[in-house]
Design a protein that fits this description.
Four copies of one chain form a homotetramer. By secondary structure, chain A is an alpha+beta fold. Chain A is built from ten helices and twelve strands. Helices cover 33% and strands 12% of the residues of chain A. The radius of gyration of chain A is 21 Å and the shape is globular. The two termini of chain A are 33 Å apart. Chains in contact: A-B, A-D, B-C, C-D.
Chain lengths: 424, 424, 424, 424
């Protein structure tokens, strides 16, 4: 629901962000904004390369948006927050798109009911691609005018639009995965076989001593979301963080121990959800005559026991931790340990988002920007947990040490996993 | 859910069925079965001519099936009930289609959840067309073997499959109309302007004297559904039937008289539905600054006051009749009057299905066929009303004097209208 | 929701109504209205004799009203439809009762939400008894004035109020049974042991020849509801009606034959209901280690296989009939056979209401009375089936040959049973 | 769901707890346990003094339990967690009560569905009082044996049972208030007129400097719940806390400023709730021709503008704070300020619980007790906010500086109010 960023000096050397190679980082630092714009926008299209026209249309559950909608909404974002003010000659191909493709910005006008996104067959996919091209053309003209003027007021808005688009790149993938899984034919997103993980090392616990630490974004970086700011101090009792994520194999032991039927392991709301939904394993798992399988972007496969467990809710992450005699980290613990231990903390950004037991609320001193953009993060600060890190669907250069992702307790269609913590 | 038939001598001359010209009737009488097969199957495709790929995919409410599903399901019907037994060499292009495209035939195997029909992007539209062609090819080979052998056991099954396909031709149109209406862009199914109705004549009441009458299908005809049989006797007190349908203009007077806010006019369940759903007019009507508009296959238009009112529920039809100091006819009344008065009863088959105040139950002596085909009609005989006649979406040659269509009280997305009756 | 009446010459000698002894009938014919008024009102109180204060308060499901409400509502009926107009000095003990105890008479003013009836602790039970006494006192004064004047306009209204109260006497019993059953402690309404039925005789089929018959109330009787009128003619094909109801033992064979898991036996809506509700037997049945038990007014007992099966829905009655190779009667069939065969038709009025396959709609020529009283029956004429006869909870003298009870398909908390019919 | 405690030295002199007079505190310190047991148990009965039998029975919404159930459940608690192990001769008056009156302790056996609590008329109120007496008698015998042995293992369990009973004393009041409000007759709990608040002083902001502070229960006290422990350190940036609660008058200004219709003020989930529920004011407020009224324990009254606003959800508290240019405190901020400023912080314990923007999660190092008692607090640690302080319904001696109450965002039927905080 939120996302991340390009490389930045604020991420300590010790904590490299996957996909954020030196090359791309260097390029980013000096590259013209239009180059970056094109790179991000093109990446979105690349993610659609294996889809058929029909795949773009449907929404398989209320949380899932059609691919077509992601493509249009990210373009609407530039139209509304950049072009409307800074490109006075800009004309929308259809003014009704503003109604159809606004997600939730109350101050940006009325919007189409979310529940009906998957019922709208027009504009067609081709028309949506044309809409993207139309916006890109206007953006090119605008960025040409801006040139190398880093202080131009349009620059932070464009950067926000690109960060926003990257967030939707992740959602596009989690959403289409769900759409494909809903289909009894179980089509694959990727055609080839998936690579399997090597046998996991035993967990090593990375200790952090008690004391006052500083978390949050220092704003020296090129980009951060408002919800990562201001940087501030927290006191942490001493603790240790697992240096890798919980694996499918470990989670399987939890299942086979009867955990889903053992009320003492669960939060009360968790148990109610497990029973109401009939959960017996992570989302996308299915028990067959030949054992457990999982639906992945490569179709239905045997569960890879060495891979990090994914698609688990907060309730399941919490119950697993309790079963393992451990607990989930808090948000500051995650950030402080990740900053301190850098690369010795594996699978931080490239596998699954990691549930923390911190509610998603404002940092001390937080103030959202004024206007519709202020709705970007602040209005979600209730009834959600913070997740930290990044996932295999997070686009290159988007993850960040101070990044705060957030979802409600029962969320499972995201790439959500478990990193354990312990008091020491 | 709906039905109909070709022309037949059982329909008295006095009651011509629109679209059933002498030419088509003659052709039908002597034509090879394969010719009829191709004509019906091709007509289905013709109904899709103005659709975009995206339009085939979605279901805009639980009652609505995707166009793609209609195309596949009607082919599955031939596959399951004709080819499976009579074409032993036949192979399905994908055995999982049997699961995806079974509608409700419990005895024909498991089936995909109706609510998920609109979430399935594969098979693609192109693959569904290929599926149809695959079935057609096998049917052609089979019908070639059958030749002119009218006594071949396959003949009644093929006829049933074609009648079934014609019913889905009507549903396809009502469904896509709803899909288009759900879209705020309000696309049109037909591109041209619609024709408008001429000013209606005052209603003339066609009287029927009291006495014992015979209704139901005499089975001399080429085709009828099991639910139209057996023919049997009923006693009717004297009554009269309106010679035309209630118009939009007349219904507008009902609206403007405050009828939707007048509890005394409504059945209790009707009032509850009106209030829960917020109904203030027929489905597809919208009040604008310029007056009432209605969404038609030609897009959003001013209400044509001369046209028969359509898309009203049983509750609304009943309330209108009460307001008008009249009532709805019973099913036997409709049939006896239609048989007796023939063409002097206008708009019987070509505008809107006509609600009757008869519940859809078995005729005395009714027995459904054995096996899965027996599920076609009999298992719906509860909680629905009979509608008589035919509509503008009923394919040529499908309407019939004894035809029994049926829907629940709150149904509005079909072409359903009102013909009044009176005691005399 | 249900009704009936005292004895009347219109019920042929052949069809005596249980509980309606010659004595009571004679008394009724000549008795002062006030005597009858007191008899009916007192009977209501007698039905509450075994209840504790707490039992009067709750509603265990939306269909069920608290006993307290029945007591108050029946008094409100006299207050509103008799005293308001004919006893100008009458003062309600609390004008807000008119809001609390109106059931559904829209034209009689606003009313309390049905769903909240069981949430209202005040007025207390004692206050409701006082309300009844208050109304009775005013009624006594009024009836004294009326005296023996049978033509006084108040007379038919009082009779309607008493018929109405008798209907609520039946509902009071079915409702409190459900309340007790909802309680895991399973309290009994009656303290003693229940009597058991003798072994049933084999069914004898009572034949009726084809022809035109007359049904409905001839209005020579002392009382009938508007929905029983006008009497009119129907044509019936020849048929036969079972001379007794289906027994628990016969229904058990249906269960043990796996009927609840056999889709081919069920209406489509019936199967959906069976699966959604998890039905495996009639309401109030429970399978224990010692076999099937049923909850009765005498508590939890072994199923009495000789007794008529009760608490079955229309769906179950219809499925049983199909399984038995038979069918349910229509409403005219029931009435014509009951009139023709009189006492040779057993268990007509004293065990369970009998589902017919006739929808509850108006008789030809029906017109409801004007004003709020017109809402009594007419506005329920959709989405319900007619039941005929009477039940063990129907008060003495209330059942009648032409009586039309009605409930929706899934109703089970009433005393509803099965009488089979056959085409001959 | 709520909690609290007796007086304790751990509450600094500066923060007196209302109702916790020196007298009662002294008594408590030296008093025999049986004296305290009787005092608490009797207080529960005293809370029922104005209720009629009917009032004890119903549940007016899923969150609300019948008074009868509170009386029985608190007795069951002693039966299950004290008598079962420590009074081997104890016999329940009815073993089925264990099923009926278990709230949520999975490890203590099966339990009655919460949604059905209000549907159970037996045991009667009299029987429930007898059940209490039965438990009290057994407890007396046990406590006699225990005598002055403060180290007896039964002592902490009895104390827990009393704390638990006090929590239900508060719930009993909030629940019966809701029951009375649901009744259109709007009965009063208290008979006399309510006292009105004096004009509020302007808010003074009580500052706390940045630094490491200690929060949580130090376990030197006589009693604390597991969720208040262990005490631990937190770092707080500097802030200030309002010295009194937001008043009805201040909240009225928020309403009159159109706040309920101003999306920019609301959390997204808050706005959705406001719109779905049609909220326009705090629960129990109603706008009449004479202005705003509120339903209190003294019936329907004009809103007392000087009183603290109560019955607001987290969403409303958060929106009010945003509107006021302020924010809600975090849990550590509340505790640190309350400890530091003591009595200069008004209305801390005696008016309304105060929403904090801290999610209810475990303190660092928290471990629940083993066995069913471990379910008391820990399993609720998701999807709820911490509330601090106490309310007018909190029994004397139950409030405490480190007490953590908790409810979900949309909760309104508790006495929940607003204390503002500011960054400095």
């Amino acid at each position: 629901m939120t996302t991340a960023m390009h490389s930045s000096p604020a991420v300590p050397e010790a904590a490299p962000v996957p996909g954020d190679t030196t090359a791309s980082r260097a390029a980013h630092a000096g590259e013209p904004l239009v180059t970056r714009y094109d790179a991000v926008r093109t990446h979105t299209l690349r993610l659609c390369a294996t889809l058929q026209t029909e795949d773009f249309v449907v929404s398989s559950m209320p949380d899932v948006s059609p691919t077509k909608w992601h493509l249009a909404h990210t373009s609407w974002f530039f139209e509304t927050f950049v072009l409307a003010e800074h490109a006075p000659d800009y004309r929308s191909p259809d003014p009704r798109y503003a109604f159809l493709f606004n997600s939730y910005y109350v101050q940006a006008g009325e919007r189409h009911c979310r529940a009906q996104r998957g019922l709208v067959t027009r504009p067609t996919v081709a028309e949506v691609f044309a809409y993207r091209a139309h916006v890109d053309e206007a953006m090119h003209r605008l960025l040409e005018r801006v040139g190398a003027d880093a202080a131009h007021p349009v620059v932070p808005l464009v950067e926000l639009g690109l960060q926003h688009e990257q967030q939707h790149q992740e959602l596009l993938q989690t959403d289409i995965k769900h759409v494909f899984w809903t289909n009894p034919l179980r089509p694959s997103y990727h055609s080839g076989p998936r690579s399997r993980h090597g046998a996991p090392e035993p967990v090593r616990w990375r200790a952090v001593p008690e004391g006052v630490h500083r978390i949050g974004n220092e704003e020296k970086e090129e980009f951060s979301f408002d919800n990562e700011r201001p940087a501030h101090r927290v006191f942490l009792e001493s603790f240790a963080l697992a240096d890798r994520l919980v694996t499918n194999g470990e989670y399987l032991a939890f299942i086979e121990d009867g955990a889903y039927d053992e009320p003492a392991l669960w939060l009360s709301a968790g148990l109610a959800t497990v029973q109401a939904e009939g959960w017996t394993a992570p989302m996308y798992w299915e028990r067959t005559a030949d054992g457990w399988t999982e639906f992945t972007m490569h179709g239905q496969n045997a569960v890879d026991t060495a891979a990090p467990v994914s698609h688990v809710s907060y309730y399941e992450a919490d119950a697993f931790a309790r079963w393992a005699g451990s607990r989930l980290p808090t948000e500051p613990e995650w950030e402080v340990a990740a900053r301190m231990h850098g690369t010795s903390l594996h699978q931080a950004y490239d596998q699954c988002w990691q549930w923390t037991q911190s509610a998603y609320v404002a940092y001390p001193g937080y103030t959202p920007p004024s206007g519709a953009i202020g709705e970007y993060n602040g209005k979600w600060m209730a009834d959600q947990w913070v997740l930290r890190g990044g996932s295999r669907a997070t686009p290159p250069g988007h993850a960040r040490l101070t990044y705060r992702n957030f979802f409600p307790s029962a969320t499972r269609w995201q790439f959500t996993g478990i990193r354990l913590a312990e008091h020491t």
